[in-house]
Write a structure and sequence with these properties.
It is built from seven helices and nine strands; from the N terminus they run E-E-E-H-E-H-E-H-H-H-E-H-E-H-E-E. With 205 residues, the chain is an alpha/beta fold. One of its GO terms (molecular function) is ATP hydrolysis activity.
Length: 205
């Protein structure tokens, strides 16, 4: 469980004030908000990439003590242009001490044809497929995903939702995500939607 207590975030402007919530395993949480309202900043706070006030713990341990349990790759700007898919998948498997099959994800997401190509030659869709594959290879209990389906066609998005439902149904995972595809997200199992607005975040139907 990710336990958030009295979380207050201020970036260029106030984003969230005194927010408390328990993000439980075996559940998917969608964070909704207007563009620029702070969805990405909230995920960054969960991984100590921005300053905040309050307390965030993973299974009663700090993020620093729990890094191997949490996977967050904010967007494709984090990639190094000269590395390739295999470089990143191998690194993810090593750092998160995963036993998950890289070959399975390469084949499932259609990465095989460009797995050794430098990332600087990738399209947006190719980069997003690699990011998704990294999440599954990490096999981390806590997966934080920021607009991860950007640049993907509908068929690939449907495959992604299918795999997320598999994770929730069969594994002890907690997934927190943001997405512009609100109607598609409704297909996900054990889904709770939280709306960020007016410095608060509350459950919505």
């Amino acid at each position: 469980m990710i336990k958030v207590e009295n979380l207050t975030i201020t970036s260029r402007q106030p984003i969230l004030k005194a927010f408390s919530f328990n993000f439980e395993k075996d559940n998917i949480y969608q964070i909704m908000a207007e563009n620029g309202a702070g969805k990405s900043t909230f995920l960054r706070a969960l991984t100590q990439l921005v300053k905040y006030e309050g307390r965030i713990v993973y299974d009663n341990k700090s993020y620093k003590q729990s890094k191997e349990k949490v996977f967050f790759f904010e967007d494709n700007s984090w990639f190094s242009d000269d590395l390739n898919s295999l470089d990143y998948l191998d690194l993810t498997k090593k750092l998160w001490h995963s036993t998950h099959s890289i070959t399975k994800e390469i084949e499932f997401w259609g990465i095989d044809e460009f797995r050794k190509l430098p990332i600087k030659k990738y399209s947006l869709g190719m980069k997003q497929k690699l990011i998704i594959a990294m999440y599954f290879v990490s096999d981390a209990p806590y997966l934080l995903m920021d607009e991860i389906t950007n640049g993907l066609d509908q068929e690939t998005r449907e495959k992604f939702y299918f795999r997320l439902n598999e994770l929730i149904d069969r594994n002890n995972k907690c997934i927190i995500l943001t997405s512009h595809y609100a109607n598609e997200i409704k297909k996900l199992h054990n889904l709770t939607t939280l709306k960020l607005e007016n410095l608060s975040m509350n459950e919505v139907n």
